[in-house]
Specification:
By secondary structure, this protein is an alpha+beta fold. It has 6 domains: about 1-40 and about 170-205, 2-Layer Sandwich (Phenylalanyl-tRNA Synthetase, Chain B, domain 1), CATH 3.30.56.10; about 45-165, OB fold (Dihydrolipoamide Acetyltransferase, E2P) (Beta Barrel), CATH 2.40.50; about 215-415, Phenylalanyl-trna Synthetase, Chain B, domain 3 (Phenylalanyl-tRNA Synthetase, Chain B, domain 3); about 430-445 and about 460-490, no CATH class; about 510-605 and about 620-735, BirA Bifunctional Protein, domain 2 (2-Layer Sandwich); about 750-835, Alpha-Beta Plaits. Helix content is about 25%, strand content about 25%. It has 22 helices and 42 strands. The strands form 12 sheets. The chain has a 7-stranded mixed beta sheet with strand order 28-31-32-38-37-36-35, with helices on both faces. It has a 5-stranded antiparallel beta sheet with strand order 5-4-3-6-11, with no helix packed on it. Strands 13-24-15-23-16 form a 5-stranded mixed beta sheet.
Length: about 850
Amino acid sequence: MRIPLSWLAEYVDVIPGSTPEDVHAALVKVGLEEEDIHRFDISGPVVVGEVLEFVEEPQSNGKTIRWCQVRVAPEGEQAADGGEAVHGIVCGARNFFVGDKVVVTLPGSVLPGPFPIAARKTYGHVSDGMIASARELGLGDEHSGILRLVELGIDAPVGTDAIALLGLDDTSVEVNVTPDRGYALSIRGIAREYSHSTGAAFRDPAHAVEPVDADGFRVTIDDEAPIRGRVGASVFVTRVVRGIDPSAPTPAWMIARLVLAGIRSVSLIVDITNYVMVELGQPTHAYDLAKLTGGITVRRAKPGERIETLDGQTRKLDPEDLLITDDSGPIGLAGVMGGANTEVSDATTDVLVEAANFDPVTVARSARRHKLPSEASRRFERGVDPDVARVAAARVVQLLEQLGGGQADGLGSTKRTVELREPIMLRHGFVSALVGVEFTDEEVRTALAEIGGAIEQTEGGLIVTPPSWRPDLNDEADLAEEVARIVGYDRIPSVLPVAPPGRGLTRGQHLRRQAATALAGSGLTEVLVYPFVTQAQNDLYGTAGDEPVPSVRLANALDASVPFMRASLLPGLVETARRNLSRGLTDLALFEIGLVFRPDGPVRGTAELPLGAALPEPSVLEQLEEGIPAQPRMVAALFTGESTPKQPGLAPVAAGIADALAAVRTLQTALGVPLAVRQGSHKALHPGRTAEVLLDGEPIGCAGELLPQVAEDADLPRVVAVLELNLDRMLAAAGRNIEVTPISTFPAATQDLSLVVDAAVPAADVLAAVIDGAGELLESAHVVDDYRGRGLPEGTKSLTFALRFRASDRTLTAAEASEAKLAGARAAGERFGASVRE
């Protein structure tokens, strides 16, 4: 909300000498956040000038200029810039005449831009200043001709300071108005808030005009089946004004105030409706009476109806839209924008003035549905004072009579179905208990009276009826907040809250952070990726099988090219790697922890989302729950480039599946879960470089290298290692199988075991057999070599295992270690036909 200070001062005694910053500070004290300060950014000398004569001079470029003699000071006096009273000025506009009063920017002045004015030679003359247009002065968009003061109804003496004359010396302050305080979207509301902050005297502009009811104009509110139980229009006031002078200009002071309030000047009638809206917070509308057919009916839209709004767009209407109609059909989208077929024009002399109060939810939904935000909808959707509609209509009539020469007649209407506000019981001591500050009964009563509440003292406390302009006050907690705000937030001490014992991170949160910290500590970088993908990406990465993956499709996707929710974290990591590689980052180790969306089949439950105006019924909530797909939390990582860069004396090490498996072991250690790996397959991964990760014998994910073609399609290097694990499954098992083994003081015995086995047998299965057969003396075992080739029968491979044996109570002999090793070999032979390689 932008507040011109001269306008504000009409209704509240602004402290003398206050700067815009001071006004901002005062409004911040009552909860209105400061945004900006707006000025015309124009400085003098800018004066009223009179065109004495001009000569039209055609130029070689086809343009005709006027060499003008302009009086800028009374005869015999010096001009404001210290020069002669008559200045020679070159002007390209041709819409003025000899004798016209114009605005002259003399050398030394600065126009918005900034655009400094100086005497300069142009078109063969020295132009000693400039005759300004409305746009050059910041008063509007008109730039086809210069500003003639007669068009503004101004006849000021030559040499008069035009800055003060046109209101260009005014300033506006802008504040951020929260959605619950719609009354502050008006000079009336801001003046009241300034009064609350400073104690300055407030004069309600709603008391400055006496509303006069009229009748005889037919208005029907046809909303017998209101949406969500709310009537679309609770107040509807109309007044007729005839005989308006269509050539009457908008006064300069009104134009300046509207510009500073962020609204452009259109015409006198439209400007007056906008002026009253900013002044009182009540949107009003003017219809060309000659274009109306019959009376007005307020109703919901019918299926298939359309309306052409004032912006020239034809809009298809929704049955929830509230319309203003006459006998010809829709003439306005209630609370949002009027229709083009009854728009006032330069020929309009008779108007119907409308001031209404519309349902905030209806207006908000219509404005969003049609992507048509307006100054009117901003106010209606926050709640407008229902008692100010009659005053606003009377104020518009008053200004049309004063400025446009119109005459109000007795034709009009007043419809009102507003229910009285329910009183609120505010118990003794409630405010102090809630806010944590001691307030006296007098402070509470005075603060609530100051905001306009009607107060009745009772034995148990105060019965407060909120004012009509505060629809946000609905319970005693709201009243307590108002007391704290009016008395002063500075009364509330800054006390650091003490967390109750036993609170903090949940076990799951702690373990998730532990996993993320472990990966980050091992050199990976965490990323956050948008969860939107294509169906093809879900099919490729979402499962190891060949069947299409059931996916959740968004009803209103931000990007139509990626309308599905991800079934895997890998597409996001691949895209992140591609983007980083395109920017020169070739060595990457990335990870993400996030949710994926994996429905077991077609999404069940309701397909229709309920309206958000009220809590849905339990049965509806159950249907919504049934429609939510499984959303497991996963952890995924990607490696490419060099895991160890080239250094003096050290060759580079390329990233690969070993890095992915190392990340698996990092998670295993960080969470204390018994993970195992075995040969696996995945349609996005290399068939010979894919490991399936197991937890308690059940698969929870995979690790491997992308297929070269998949990597190439994503503009990635040939070797890209990835992993993806079900973090939820890991967290559920975290810490339950941790066994602490005392450190033995006896030496270990190490031996190698090479077994020849069929090439199709996974090494992990052979290792498991060796471990089972070797018994309790075996401390550790891992594969160190996988050989296939000369010296071995065709279709076989040689697996070499590094074994370490240790006893807890003695030093093992070589024979004991060898016997345990051979026992492991026998077990592998029994299960897989393995034989010891000679």
